[in-house]
Amino acid sequence: MNYRHAFHVGNHADVLKHASLLFCLDALRRKPTPFAVLDTHAGRGLYDLTGEEAQRSPEWRDGVGRLWNWPEPPPLVAQYLEAVRAFNADGELRTYPGSPALITSALRPDDALAACELHPEEYSALRRALPRVANVQLHARDGYESLAALLPPAQKRGLVVIDPPYEKPDELATSAQAITRALKRFGHGSYLWWRPMKSESALNAADAEIHAHGARETLRADLWTAAPTPEGKLVGSSILLINPPYGIEPALREALPFLADALTKGQSGWALRQH
Ligand SMILES: C[S@@+](CC[C@H](N)C(=O)[O-])C[C@H]1O[C@@H](n2cnc3c(N)ncnc32)[C@H](O)[C@@H]1O
Fold first, then answer.
1. How many CB atoms within 10 Å of residue 70?
2. Residues with catalytic roles
3. Looking at residue 83, what is its pLDDT?
4. Whole-prediction pTM value?
5. Which residues of the chain have pLDDT under 70?
6. What separation in Å is there between the alpha carbon of 116 and the centre of ligand 1?
7. φ/ψ of residue 241, rounded to 5
8. pLDDT confidence of residue 187
9. How remote is the CA of residue 123 from the centroid of ligand 1, in Å?
10. 110-155 pLDDT tens trace
11. What is the pLDDT of residue 55?
12. CB of 7 within 8 A of CB of 57?
């Protein structure tokens, strides 16, 4: 396990993932009944953008950094920037909240988060980053395994966030298989699954696997900031929302062209597909 999210934090992929995540959380909060979130690959929770990793590889400058002072971004992006601003009280962008920090901020007292992180250092940092409150449970365990062990949640409704590092060549297929098993246990839950845009055919095969195993409704959002380069630097990502919340399709349809323009580094683009 060599992947460190600190090198990539706040980049175009985090923007797409975290803006969509915040919409999903907001949608869950529209009902008074409590909800649960399972974050299978949590990371360290808070990232210091002035720290060594983020300075060595400042991908955030072409991601959240470009949006930070944008006058009137679309609502999906405005909500995301507002959530990041809550971690940067003086208005200077220095701290970036990862998924478990954003989720924790959105919980009401009866809602719950279970967050898994397998890397020992990242797990220790996560423990330090999040408040010690009863409704936030951290697990130093395999996130794929948690999809079987921790679902369905006692609250019976909620969101599952799957954001693996894709270090292993077969990790897209591994994730798809784990999600299909999770759907058998928690078929009416919402899922946000992040994937790198590396191979269109592999992504289509992963989506087909999900549809073949019971996902009733999905929405796929792709955002790329440039044409793929031979050195393989990640220029695009794709999220698959299973049981997407009401209203996210038009919100993404408005935000994606804006993001493709604002974050462009060449031949940028976007796609949105409902199934
Ligand atoms: C892409 S990062 C997560 C970023 C985080 N979700 C966010 O949005 O802020 C992936 C994380 O998964 C961790 N990891 C790798 N394999 C894992 C596994 N099998 N189970 C749980 N965590 C794992 C890595 O250490 C890394 O911190």
1. 13
2. 163
3. 98
4. 0.97
5. 230-231
6. 8
7. -100, 120
8. 96
9. 10
10. 999 999 999 999 999 999 999 999 999 999 999 999 999 999 999 9
11. 83
12. yes
What residue type is assigned to position 111 of the chain?
Answer: D
The Cβ of residue 166 has, within 10 Å, a number of other Cβ atoms equal to 17
174 CB burial (10 A radius; 0-12, 13-18, 19+): middle
234 ligand 1 Cβ < 6 A: no
> CA-to-CA distance for 49 and 61, rounded, in angstroms?
10
One-character DSSP codes across 183-201 = HHHSTTSEEEEEEE-S-HH
CA distance 206 to 209: 5
Give the helix/strand (H/E) hosting 260: helix 248-262
Ligand 1 centroid from CA 157, angstroms:
23
Q: Class assignment of domain 5-274?
A: alpha beta
* Residue 99 CB–ligand 1 contact under 6 Å: yes
- For the chain, the distance separating the N- and C-terminal CA atoms, rounded to the nearest angstrom, is 34
124 lines ligand 1 (CB under 6 A): no
Angle at which helix 171-185 crosses helix 200-212, to 10 degrees, equals: 20
In the numeric block, the tokens 């949105």 are attached to 272
Residue nearest to ligand 1 atom 4, measured at CA:
43
Q: Where are the domains of the chain?
A: 5-274
Cβ–ligand 1 contact at 5 (below 6 Å): yes
Tell me the three state secondary structure of residue 160.
strand
Residue 98 in contact with ligand 1 by CB distance below 6 A:
yes
**C-alpha of residue 67 to centroid of ligand 1, in Å:** 25
Cα separation, 154 vs 128, in Å, equals: 26
Q: 230, exposed or middle or buried, with CB in 10 Å at 0-12, 13-18, 19+?
A: exposed
- Nearest CA, atom 25, ligand 1: 119
- Yes or no: say if 42 and 3 are a contact pair by the CB < 8 Å rule: no
